[in-house]
Amino acid sequence: LPFLSGSRSSKTFKPKKNIPEGSHQYELLKHAEATLGSGNLRQAVMLPEGEDLNEWIAVNTVDFFNQINMLYGTITEFCTESSCPVMSAGPRYEYHWADGTNIKKPIKCSAPKYIDYLMTWVQDQLDDETLFPSKIGVPFPKNFMSVAKTILKRLFRVYAHIYHQHFDSVMRLQEEAHLNTSFKHFIFFVQ
């Protein structure tokens, strides 16, 4: 992949988070992909009958992480310290980074740095078996919904940044249909 060749961009681009094949979560992902194929995004985000809400949210959160990761990965060469010295979505929306653990007080940083912090933080959450259990029968924590909401709220910021600062690059790469579909799917899901 050409966009992975740069030293900085390969650091920002996170490896795809895989859902184990044969697992129930994998079956849910396949269901989601099949429903998406119908072209009806509103139907695609609906909880399948008889399924656990937390598990459905977990599977979709992983999927959105992978989608946003891939979309951002295609434009990292245009999102640099000099082109995007501040993580923003226009003059009215500036985002400062804090993870509550390593960085407690929000810091102002460039968009690529912010997105690197964000994607690393999300990946750490997804890899944490106490937050996102991958084994059947292991319960989700009581705070799962608030953790998922925080992840999705922060992933939204990456879409916002891409749309506001890099849509011209997305157009040049002829990726706007993919970005728009991904974003529409994301919005329907979080609603």
UniProtKB/TrEMBL annotation:
Keywords: Kinase, Metal-binding, Transferase, Zinc. Zn(2+) binds at residues 79, 84, 161, 166. The keyword Plastid does not apply. Residues 1-10 have a biased composition (Polar residues). This is MOB1A kinase. InterPro entries: MOB_kinase_act_fam, MOB_kinase_act_sf. GO terms for molecular function: kinase activity. Residues 1-20 are annotated as: Disordered. It comes from the Eukaryota.
